[in-house]
Amino acid sequence: MKTNAYVAGVGMTRFGKHGDKTLKALAAEAIRAALADAGLDARMLQAAWMGNAAAGVVTGQEMIRGEVALRGMGIGRIPVVNIENACASSSTALQQAAAFVMAGLYDVVLVCGYEKLFHEDKARSLGAFLSAVDVEDPEGALNVVKQLARAAGESYESDGPSAARSVFMDIYAMMARAHMKAYGTTAGDFARVVEKNAFHGSLNPRAQFRERVSVEDALNARSIVAPLTLPMCSPIGDGAAAVVLVSARKAREMSLVRPVRMVASVLATGWDRDQDRDDGQHDSVGALAARAAYEAAGIDPRDLSCVELHDASAPSELIAYEYLGLCAEGAGASLLAAGDTRLGGRIPVNVSGGLLRKGHPVGATGCAQIVELTEQLQGRSGARQVEGARIALAHNGGGAIGVDAAVTVVTILQRE
């Protein structure tokens, strides 16, 4: 979808463990920051899209999540749309909100992603991820892992991942092993992703983890499931991020300083690729969404200044380089080794620290990517500023169906 919606303001909390704050309080903090950044009063909002993935499981809040959060801020009367779409919840909310703005139905809208994943009962936190697959499949999430294992030429026997870790770490591990087998990628390559993103995260005051991590430390850390060690897996977290979108007409009226436009946003869902008789990465849902976004924006990957992508695991980042077209298939490790995706490189990736270091409160992740990229395009990112940033891409995926993500959103922003 090609859009002409403008980002008028952004705001977010620090990501991490917020045991002293409610889900509503986190949302309010981010929303107030975004409204202040836009210089707008909450009374000017005409509609709101609220993205949350796991409150029903973790906090017990279902059905009216957005209405509850906004009412606590004194915001009512306006349409409120609740979006739940796995880790892509607030990316989906943004894409849908932009469509309504582009259609001329609203001039000023709010998009907010918010999540609390920490809970004293860890099983409840991990249980949220178990529901991001087809639960009516007799084998549930394990069937996804088994299909990926076959793609890697292996067999898989469960040792009960749901009791100790998110089943998605098993999924990412099998994806990694398939890539290692096909292209000679090593655990050291995945550790280099961690080192890079930890360096970036050390420069981000809103990141969950700000400590630097060496390649050796990443390799020698506690094993989660081979080849993944703890730093190679994104953490759970709490947090919120918000974006105020306006129409082109409203943007002109506001005389936005350093305006940032959403030039494209594509939402795509996975399909059963086995039926297509082709399991190649070129046909993944991520590749599909990226190609459509580039076409809608009228650009190609060489035009990008920076990228925030869904590094739920370190191997996920390397694999995404390839299907997003940042390099050839199988060349992700080489792109990383050349320093191209590091701050100061040709195409810096996850300068926020990514999910690995900034954190991954799943419902907030998509909006947080837009916050980071907007600030980059406006030259507001301080020590982690990408010099001359003009066009940026956000990639956010979620859930698992078959051997692919259940949903992916790719959004392209441009400074005008």
From TrEMBL:
Membrane spanning residue stretches: none
Domain Thiolase N-terminal: 6-247
UniProt keyword terms in alphabetical order: Acyltransferase, Transferase
Pfam family, any one: Thiolase_N
Domain Thiolase C-terminal: 288-403
Catalytic activity, EC: 2.3.1.16
Top-level taxonomic group: Bacteria
KW Protease (keyword) present: no
Gene Ontology molecular-function annotations: acetyl-CoA C-acyltransferase activity
Name the UniProt record assigns to this protein: 3-ketoacyl-CoA thiolase
Originating species: Pararobbsia alpina
Gene name of the record: fadA_2
